[in-house]
Amino acid sequence: MFQETIPILAEDIFAILGDKQSVEILDAVFTGFLSSNGIPNQSKKQYYVRLKRLVDIGLIEKQHRTYKLTSFGSIVYENHVKTMDKIIPNYWQIKSFDILKNRNDFPVEQKEQIINEYIGSTDLKDVINTTHLSSFSVVKRFDDLIVEILKVLDNAEKEVYFATSYHDPHVSSKVFEKIGKGVTIHILDGNPEQITVESRLAAIIRTPPNRETAEMVKKIIKSPRFDLKRLPNLPQSFMVVDGIQVVYDTVNFINPEQFTIAISKYDDAYMAQRFIEYFKLLSKDATIPKLMEEMKACSNRR
After folding, report:
1. What's the rounded Cα separation, in Å, for the pair 216 and 226?
2. For residue 244, what is the domain's CATH number?
3. pLDDT for 302
4. Cα–Cα dist 145/142, whole Å
5. How is residue 4 annotated by DSSP?
6. What local confidence, expressed as pLDDT, does residue 161 receive?
């Protein structure tokens, strides 16, 4: 059994990484040249205070009269100290990526190709995932997809097309929030019958957690900025934000209900337009939920 200790905080680690003398000790331990006399240009007090701190926080340990990086220390050293050693000398080249991405006289694909070619020709290829510097990212876990959806949805300022066959309460809350801020939301609901968007909205109206929530839901349903349609056999989930950002997942043809992989495109008006057209094509076979018709009819009678 491991003894419970006070949890290590990220700021504790970054405080050490921001201290030049502590990093010098880590460098010495990593290379195996940590002298019992300490580190050049460090007083004995400076050396022993930092050495104890590194041991206490679990980055290094003493073994057979010498110090070595712990497993935790190795991960921190490899992913931060050694990574920065490769990134900082390329600072101005990386800075030029921002200038290139802001130019309008280059197609997106050409910009990404230039960035990828440069990274591939330097030691940055070992420490930088090119998708972090490009206009797309790949999502391999469903939990990460929800995070990605929330991130892209948060960028919405005008209009969202959202074809969905899954439910997440955080996404629903973000959709309501965006409608309240004046964003138009088009939803094509492909969820199973028991968890359709309509059934969830009806449940809130029928047994509201509080009056404010019930009134908010009724207001959203009646809003011209909220467009909900039902398509039981939705072939794919995707979202388009403001005609430029797209998130879409691929279908597992053996088991269509199983998540496989998703792609986010952050700056692709052409792809966004294709997905909007696809959304409108799918909508031709969709139906307007009864709840929507009743609520809007009631609103029109008034």
Report:
1. 12
2. 3.30.870.10
3. 54
4. 5
5. P
6. 97
In a domain, 256, yes or no: yes
Distance of CA 142 to the CA centre of its chain: 11
Distance CA 17, CA 223 (A): 52
Alpha helices in 141-196 (DSSP H): 142-154, 169-180
With 0-12 CB in 10 A as exposed, 13-18 as middle and 19+ as buried, what is 168?
middle
Rounded to 10°, the helix 20-31/10-17 angle is 90
Does any domain span residue 164? yes
Range of the domain at 246: 136-301
> Between 126 and 254, where is the model more confident?
126
Q: Which residue has the tokens 């005609």?
A: 243
pLDDT at 163: 95
Q: How far is CA 213 from the centre of its chain?
A: 28
The verdict on pTM exceeding 0.70 is no
Number of structural domains the chain divides into = 3
Cα–Cα distance, 19 to 57 (Å, whole number):
14
Instruction: Flag whether pLDDT at 3 surpasses 60.
Output: no
